[in-house]
Amino acid sequence: MKNNYLFIVILLLGMSISAQTFTLKSKELGGQATNKQLLNGFGCVGENISPQLFWENAPKGTKSFAITMYDESAPTGSGWWHWIVFDIPANLVELKANAGNPTQKLVPSTVIQSMTDFKTKGYGGPCPPEGSGFHKYLITIHALNTDKLGLDENANPALVGFMLQQHLIEKATLVFYFKK
To answer: Are 142 and 171 a contacting pair, CB within 8 Å?
Structure first.
């Protein structure tokens, strides 16, 4: 009987350890974008505030993070990059709301927010074309095996994406939707 209890304790301990996966979360972002996250431009009148994000259980060997926001439903043939942030120090585990506004200086000065498909730096919220249905937005955190990607704020999304793949340890994604 005593051995059975010991076995159950070991089994439960093993299950709780294995359930701790790299995870991206938000205290304010749900399944649908709100006016707070929407772009102010391109026919939208949102607040264009990037959502608060935090992450847990970074994989061993993580030296930095990157965050991307991508609309895979954009009618471009290649999607639309809304936000690209990299060289986030490994000891940082949260981005506050509006961290995507570079003028607010809510991230360390070493963090780089590079060019989006809006041809701007920083966060550009959802604003899909009228009548194009629900768009699926993916906010992904990338755990990287390097402190720096070696890119600057003028790097385009394709180049950043290539470098992220070269240094990727693990990633986690939040999904939300919006329709205009």
So the answer is: yes
